[in-house]
Amino acid sequence: MSTSPLHVIVIGGGTGGLCLAQGLKRAGVGVAVHERDRTRSDGLQGYGVGIDADGKRALRACLSPELYDTFVATCAKRPVYFNQYTEQLSQLFSSGPEIFKEPPDFDELDLYESVSRMTLRQVLLTGLEDVVHFEKRYTHYEQRPDGKVTAFFDDGTSATGDVLVAADGSNSKVRGQYLPQAKLLDAGLTGITGKTLLTDETRTLLPRRILDGVTMLQGPKGFMCIIHVMQFPWDTDGEPKDGIGRTEAELISQWPGLLHDNSRDYIMWGFAAADHRLPADTMQRKGGEAQQLVRQLTADWHPNLRRLFALGDPNSCFPLKIRTSEPVEQWQTTNVTLIGDAIHTMTPGRGVGANTALRDAALLCKNLVAAQEGRTGLLDAIRDYETKMVAYGFEAVAKSRRNMDGHSAAHKDGVTGSLVRGLMRTSMRAMNQMTFVKRKMAMSEAEFRGAGRQKED
């Protein structure tokens, strides 16, 4: 086992790739991230993402204490309720702190956070100015006889290192070359997402529990829509709001990432339907056309929801084909490996995609640091990471798919579909009356998301 310095090439500057780079740089491992975007502010990154216990522990492990504190300070208002409502804003199920006689004995790291993807991106880019190389479009890699690996880019440049990490998302070119047997499956659903600014008018459109939580709307024909209200600790001028702590205000005011962050208080909404209920050209509809399609499909929904969609920013609307990875048998380990959506793309059904990518990053970082320090061999370190990641990653894939499958009975026409949807609503209303069931569900979900873990992976 050698203690010679490692150099890690990361393809893709998304959540997982940047978290990995933060951890490696902090530990003294050489790392370079090659990102296809032109600047750190490119890309439609403004929608909310939930960061659970797994995600928070990974961020704390990889970021400096100061930067982790900045992450916490820039999180949006924490959701209080997790809800299910009908398209007519009739409550089916709602779970909040009132279900516990005494609050669970959770660590601060176990508590769920909400953050804008753009904000998280800017936090993760902070301090990596010498590490991230923009406008680098990866084409292929070559493994060299000397044990190193070289990545090539479409501008004619290349980069050589000891390890190549694919963090280039669901359409990973690295995966296509390295694991051609790892395929994506069509989940049979298409989503259209958008955001509506949170104003005095839009605030009145939603019940308090929806404003203060994360909500799934269950509509006819299997239509569904998630609503997540994002309220940040800074105002429209980028200044800290009144009422936040002095320490948080100071961190925000001094944080250079705010200069690149366009996040303002908004209501994120994501509509989804089975493909057979959508026009054939849905994926070609962008902006106002995508927004108009949502309005057409929800013509019989509650007027407040119709108004919410109508007031959405057309430029924020786009369609998204929902896909999921097909689990693969663990492969023979080399100095090429994968994290996040590059290996385990999952539907948003459980909301753990970003958190699983962060978990990957922290585990791989820890193992690569051990390899550089001579505590394990490089391939042993990667193999240990892949063994654990394949297990928890594809478990999350399977559970996420069960929550969002356009081929399920709930999306069928006729008596079968109506019966299944009716039974789902009835069961949710019944569970809504049983506090002990809510409590058991909340604890099970928290455990799935990493709450109460006593040690890192």
Can you put this structure into words, describing what you see?
This is FAD-dependent monooxygenase. Keywords: FAD, Flavoprotein, Monooxygenase, Oxidoreductase. It holds the Pfam family FAD_binding_3. It comes from Streptomyces morookaense (Streptoverticillium morookaense). This protein is α/β, with parallel strands linked by helices. It has a single domain, classed as FAD/NAD(P)-binding domain (3-Layer(bba) Sandwich), CATH 3.50.50. The chain is 36% helix and 21% strand. A seven-stranded mixed beta sheet has the order 5-4-13-14-15-12-16. A hairpin with a 4-residue loop joins β4 and β5. The relative contact order is 0.19.
Shape-level CATH architecture: 3-Layer(bba) Sandwich
The name of the CATH superfamily reads FAD/NAD(P)-binding domain
The mean pLDDT is 94
Tally of individual helices: 15
What's the CATH class, please?
Alpha Beta
CA(first)-CA(last) distance? 22 Å
- Principal-axes shape call: globular
Unreliable spans are none
Number-wise, the strands total: 17
Strand arrangement within the widest β-sheet reads 5-4-13-14-15-12-16
Helical content class: 25-40%
Alpha-beta classification: alpha/beta
What would you report as the Rg, rounded to the nearest angstrom?
22 Å
Write down the domain tally: 1
Strand content: 15-25%
Describe the sheet with the most strands.
7 strands, mixed
User: Remind me, CATH topology?
Assistant: FAD/NAD(P)-binding domain
Key structural traits:
about 450 residues, 15 helices, FAD/NAD(P)-binding domain, alpha/beta
